[in-house]
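Exercise 7.
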Amino acid sequence: MKNTTELKGNWNETKGKLKQKFAMLTDNDLLLAEGKEDELLGRLQTKLGKSKEEIHKIISEL
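Solution. The predicted structure, written as tokens, is:
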């Protein structure tokens, strides 16, 4: 997965791509608050039914 700085820098673009790929995701699901990256990954795992590794792979492939 992209490092945290890369992820934060490109988050709006990444968020848009995730919403296109997974229409059930909302802005609240994709809220990236300072220091809350693990919480975001947990929300995505729950919503998409995927493992942490699968979430990392999805994000890195966007």
